[in-house]
Amino acid sequence: MNGSIMILHICFLGYICIGSLYSNMNNFMRNDFCCRLEQLDNDMKRCTSSHTKYYKKRLRDISKELSDCSMIFERIYKACQNFHRLIELPVCYTFLFSFATSATSLFFTFWQYRLTNVFLWGCPVSCLKVCTDILLMTLAAYSAVNNGEMIKNVNLYTVNISDRYVKWHHNVS
User: In degrees to the nearest 10, what's the CA dihedral of 79, 84, 85, 87?
Assistant: First the structure.
């Protein structure tokens, strides 16, 4: 039973780490990158000649940064896939073993109570702990998936840069 609980704790920590990586990247994209992008767009709209070297350099820098962010998201996604593939079978066995052990323990506890009128509290508390560990791991996995999907909500198409440079449109895609 301790080994299966350890697998659940490892999965919990792994999914918390993946969710944290996604959350930090989402915060960077939403709070830092998009603000600088909007500022560049406003500067380019106010400028009479938008083809100056300064704005082209800033656009290249932001475009390179977007490519780097895209590469980081891709690496996080691949790490998440590898982690999931690594733990998929052990977690499946852990769920089966935990539920089978809990059901057997609860059956034995109620059977013992029916025969002797003595209720053993250790088994139901242990079953409750296992269910809590499963719930925590499930919530951590849900949080990681939810944070991974959040980047789709960052709207980079509202900036008019895509009308001026085709490469920007390719990077955003």
Answer: 120
- Give alpha helix (H) positions in the chain: 2-27, 34-46, 53-116, 122-149, 161-164, 166-172
Any idea where the domains of the chain sit in the sequence? 2-172
Dist. CA 159–CA 31, nearest whole Å: 15
First to last CA, the chain: 47
CA distance linking residue 50 with residue 70, whole number of Å = 26
Average pLDDT over residues 42-69: 76
CA atoms within 13 A on the CB side of 122: 4
Read off the pLDDT band of 170 (50, 70, 90).
very low
Q: pTM for the full model?
A: 0.73
* Dihedral, CA of residue 80, residue 84, residue 86 and residue 87, to nearest 10: 130
Give the C-alpha separation, 98 to 103, whole Å: 8
- How far apart (Å, rounded) are the C-alpha atoms in residues 51 and 36? 19
